[in-house]
Design goal:
This protein is an alpha/beta fold and 540 residues long. Among the domains are: 12-258, ANL, N-terminal domain (Rossmann fold); 442-531, GMP Synthetase, Chain A, domain 3 (2-Layer Sandwich), CATH 3.30.300. It contains 15 helices and 27 strands. The strands form five sheets. The chain has a nine-stranded mixed β-sheet. It has an eight-stranded mixed β-sheet with strand order 7-8-6-5-3-4-9-10, with helices on both faces. A hairpin with a 2-residue loop joins strand 1 and strand 2. The protein is globular, with a radius of gyration of 24 Å.
């Protein structure tokens, strides 16, 4: 049929070319130990073009997975673009995972090359004997590493020696990025993003009724670039030519506040625990936040106190967003509708603490226990399901949890209500997951490990409230009769220490006579949570 639109592929290359063409003078700023690194999108483009040659010299082919193990910095940003623009797949590794999980993920993804920040060299050296597919390591800052049992090329030396490469022709349905979930049950699972999905997600981020990012913004993504692609902010910032401010490893409240002020940041984003620490410092010292207009918060439910604090003290809008690795991640946004502006502050706050309405291009529904779609009455509970052009249709290279993708919908595992206005409110989480500082912790994995202790008869792990991290694990232990009164909390924690990342370890252990059971003999965590809802975790 004549008269249809041009078939222009939506790729990361298009975003890169736009940044160079229209915003060559705009800056990318990275915090360093001794100051900041600044350069422009024009400078950035030329280094990315050199990386195209470097990747070819390293033997990277179309659809190969290339991993990064790095903080939010300009070199990491260069790889964000160079890898997918070369036809390969950017695989961002979560630096907070335990070594055995990292080895599993790298092997499962069949990563060919790993680019890493120099501070992680000891961990890379530790991992190397367990990695099956990795052919080359590249250290992103500092010189090459020439140890007898571990060698890594120098990123800067490779770029210095390379000519600018030509960008290959890409199709929009080619894989561009790969992120793994935090492994809430069993092994972590990979989510593969296409060029098209990342492009559309970036466009959506610029909508005023969404996050509303624009060219005049100075954007500081505190959310890590290995956490669901820093919520899409690196690609969106380049698309609109916004100044991008990257914190590197300097994530303490004082570092964040100094960056906000010195770089005149207008939009920033991070999980609730970041802002709890920032607020504690704001209460003690004076900081000028007059440039900041929006704080985007996601990863876990945002306490009303955070929203109220920034609004009341600084007139800064807090936008709560909901999403998952499987949704790229943006699924919903907590903006008020125009006619809600006349509501009282308290009524507005009650709406803002919900997870918001679905963003454009995302559809939502929730399925009740009876298998039927629930009513949007703000009371009926159901598991949230979503679909859209940047929602995963399955996990990478596995049939695990295939049942979550059915009839074109993705079942999120979040138990929600949806009100008559379409606002989502997460009431509970399926499978009793614990979300600490925006990251998932599997109570089941902890329980299975605890049950391997020779002195433990029963073990259940539940989430309890924590002022900073929102939720932390509490281990409820039933000892075998002959060991009662003979086991310390420290012994239990030490038993887990080598099996899990430190932030997975329970903050406390309680010894009880019996774990309550359901009618079918399962541990009744609902009763446990009710029993320990006022439990005070020890201060650390």
């Amino acid at each position: 049929m004549n008269g249809l639109m041009m078939d222009t592929p939506l790729t990361i290359q298009m975003i890169l070319e736009r940044a160079r063409t229209f915003f060559p003078k705009k800056e990318i700023v990275t915090k360093l130990a001794n100051g900041v690194h600044r350069y422009t999108y024009k400078d950035f483009y030329h280094r990315v073009a050199k990386l195209i040659t470097v990747l070819d010299q390293l033997g990277v082919k179309n659809s190969d997975r290339v991993a990064t193990f790095a903080w939010n910095n300009y070199r990491h940003l260069e790889l964000y673009f160079a890898i997918p623009c070369s036809g390969a797949v950017l695989h961002t590794l979560n630096i907070r995972l335990a070594p055995d999980q990292l080895a599993y993920i790298i092997n499962h993804a069949e990563d060919q090359v790993i680019f890493f920040d120099a501070m992680f060299a000891p961990l890379m050296k530790q991992l190397k004997p367990h990695l099956k597919s990795v052919k080359q390591f590249v250290v992103m800052d500092g010189g090459a590493i020439e140890d007898d049992d571990f060698k890594a090329l120098s990123y800067e030396e490779l770029i210095e020696a390379a000519a600018e490469g030509s960008f290959p022709e890409l199709k929009e349905d080619m894989a561009a990025g790969l992120c793994y979930t935090s492994g809430t049950t069993g092994n972590p699972k990979g989510v593969l993003y296409s060029h098209r999905s990342l492009f559309l997600h970036s466009m959506a981020m610029t909508m005023k009724d969404n996050t509303g990012l624009c060219e005049e913004d100075r954007i500081l993504p505190i959310v890590p670039m290995f956490h669901a692609n820093a919520w899409g902010m690196p690609y969106t910032s380049a698309m609109i030519g916004a100044t991008l401010v990257l914190p590197n490893q300097f994530m303490q409240p004082i570092d964040i506040l100094k960056l906000l002020i010195e770089e005149k940041v207008t939009v920033t984003a991070g999980v609730p625990t970041i802002w709890i620490g920032v607020i504690q410092l704001l209460e003690k010292e004076q900081f000028d936040l007059s440039n900041l207009r929006v704080v985007l918060i996601g990863g876990s439910a945002v306490p009303a106190s955070i929203i109220d604090y920034f609004d009341r003290k600084y007139s800064i809008a807090v936008l709560q967003a909901w999403g998952m690795t499987e949704t790229s991640p943006l699924g919903s946004i907590g903006r008020l509708k125009s006619y809600m502006q006349s509501l009282s502050k308290q009524e507005q706050l009650a709406i803002k603490t919900k997870q918001g309405i679905a963003v454009p291009c995302i559809e939502i529904r929730a399925i009740g226990d009876n298998g039927q779609v629930i009513e949007w009455d703000g009371k009926s509970l159901g598991e949230l399901q979503v679909r859209g052009p940047w929602v995963a249709s399955g996990y990478f290279n596995t049939d695990e949890r295939a049942e979550a993708f059915r009839d074109g919908w993705f079942s999120t595992g979040d138990i929600v209500t949806i009100d008559a206005e379409g606002y989502i409110s997460i009431a509970d989480r399926a499978k009793d997951l614990i979300k600490s500082g925006g990251e998932w912790i599997s109570s089941v994995d902890l329980e299975l490990a605890l049950l391997g202790h020779p002195k433990i008869r029963e073990a259940s792990v539940i989430a309890v409230a924590h002022e900073k991290w929102v939720e932390r694990p509490l281990a409820c232990i039933v000892l075998k009769d002959q060991f009662k009164g003979q086991v310390s909390s420290e012994e239990i924690i030490d038993f887990l220490r080598d099996r899990f990342a430190s932030w997975w370890l329970p903050d406390a252990v309680v010894f009880i006579d019996e774990i309550p059971k359901t009618s079918v003999g399962k541990f009744d965590k609902k009763q446990l949570r009710n029993q320990y809802k006022e439990f005070k975790l020890p201060e650390k």
